[in-house]
């Protein structure tokens, strides 16, 4: 199918898997909360579902904000008939406490948008990588004609991607035209198709010294908090660049500020930060080798149709064969 200009697809949309019988939600009306939105109600209806106000008959909830877990907790406590919850983003760290409370329960079944936004986020990761390598932070801030040439080519470089989800897979697809060598770092060393090498997270310090580009595309969990800190930056090449399109908490921000100031790495491009929003006056705003894009890798204009498509697939599963996409592991937190 021909895409319209600017239209993304959901690479994971066809990766539906059947859930176990004890995790199969009961079909019934779906509530869209905290506030109904027509494009998402239309997605439910397109799948043959019924959209209705929250009631004792509600069996599914589409939660449209990436926050307010306490409010969602109260809704689930007061409506025990809800057996399926669709969350709006790929990352579910804002709901980690709530999810942990359901880790030993088969229902409700939780699904997220993981994989749905892989294309726009990977596109942004590539843009940031090229911007750093081509010296755009310095060039964009220049106020007079440069007298020296700076810039590196991405072709043939060694790239380390931390994370092995849909975004990592899409980043590798985009990188393939640059003839890069890609090492993927994930929880286990189980090979990821398309990667030249896959290693476990425990080997991160061993692969960082060989990386020209490090891209963070991992989930934010207790295990990945400050995955990159002083030791990791010290291990990287002075010519290496860092891109984070995942979650700010993966980086020790103070350590990054020091690493950039000391020249331990050549540059950083951050779509996400810790804290977020990054406060006015923070040293990263004026760091000449840093780009900050204020969490815009996947804008609402890009994600809304992708989320609508994910909702339609999962409402079809709710009413039909039970083959859901983006099922969340409540114990692991993603």
UniProtKB/TrEMBL annotation:
Keywords, sorted A to Z: NAD, Oxidoreductase
InterPro entries: D-isomer_DH_CS, D-isomer_DH_NAD-bd, NAD(P)-bd_dom_sf
D-isomer specific 2-hydroxyacid dehydrogenase NAD-binding domain ranges (all copies): 127-297
Gene Ontology molecular-function annotations: NAD binding; oxidoreductase activity, acting on the CH-OH group of donors, NAD or NADP as acceptor
Pfam family, one: 2-Hacid_dh_C
Chain intervals for the UniProt region annotation (Disordered): 1-23
PANTHER family, alphabetized: 2-HACID_DH_C DOMAIN-CONTAINING PROTEIN, D-ISOMER SPECIFIC 2-HYDROXYACID DEHYDROGENASE NAD-BINDING DOMAIN-CONTAINING PROTEIN
Protein's recorded name: Phosphoglycerate dehydrogenase-like enzyme
């Amino acid at each position: 199918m021909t895409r319209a200009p600017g239209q993304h697809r959901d690479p994971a949309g066809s990766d539906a898997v059947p859930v176990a019988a004890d995790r199969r939600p009961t079909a019934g009306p779906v509530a869209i909360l905290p506030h109904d939105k027509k494009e998402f109600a239309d997605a439910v209806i397109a799948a043959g579902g019924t959209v209705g106000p929250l009631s004792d008959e509600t069996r599914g909830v589409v939660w449209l904000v990436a926050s307010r877990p306490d409010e969602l907790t109260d809704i689930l406590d007061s409506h025990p008939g809800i057996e399926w919850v669709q969350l709006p983003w790929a990352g579910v760290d804002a709901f980690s406490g709530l999810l942990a409370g359901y880790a030993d329960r088969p229902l409700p079944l939780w699904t997220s948008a993981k994989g749905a936004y892989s294309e726009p986020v990977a596109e942004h990761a590539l843009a940031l990588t090229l911007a750093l390598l081509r010296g755009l932070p310095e060039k964009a801030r220049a106020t007079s004609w440069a007298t020296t040439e700076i810039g590196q080519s991405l072709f043939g470089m060694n790239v380390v991607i931390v994370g092995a989800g849909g975004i990592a897979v899409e980043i590798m697809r985009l990188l393939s035209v640059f003839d890069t060598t890609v090492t993927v770092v994930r929880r286990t060393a189980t090979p990821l198709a398309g990667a030249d090498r896959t290693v476990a997270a425990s080997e991160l310090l061993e692969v960082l010294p060989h990386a020209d580009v490090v891209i963070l595309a991992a989930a934010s969990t207790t295990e990945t908090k400050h995955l990159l800190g002083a030791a990791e930056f010290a291990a990287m090449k002075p010519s290496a660049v860092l891109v984070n399109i995942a979650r700010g908490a993966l980086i020790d921000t103070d350590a990054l500020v020091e690493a950039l100031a000391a020249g331990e790495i050549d540059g950083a491009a951050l779509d996400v930060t810790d804290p977020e929003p990054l406060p006015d006056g923070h040293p990263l705003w004026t760091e000449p080798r840093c780009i900050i894009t204020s969490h815009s890798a996947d804008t609402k204009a890009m994600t809304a149709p992708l989320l609508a498509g994910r909702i339609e697939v999962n409402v079809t599963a709710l009413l039909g064969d039970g083959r859901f996409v983006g099922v969340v592991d409540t114990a692991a937190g993603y």
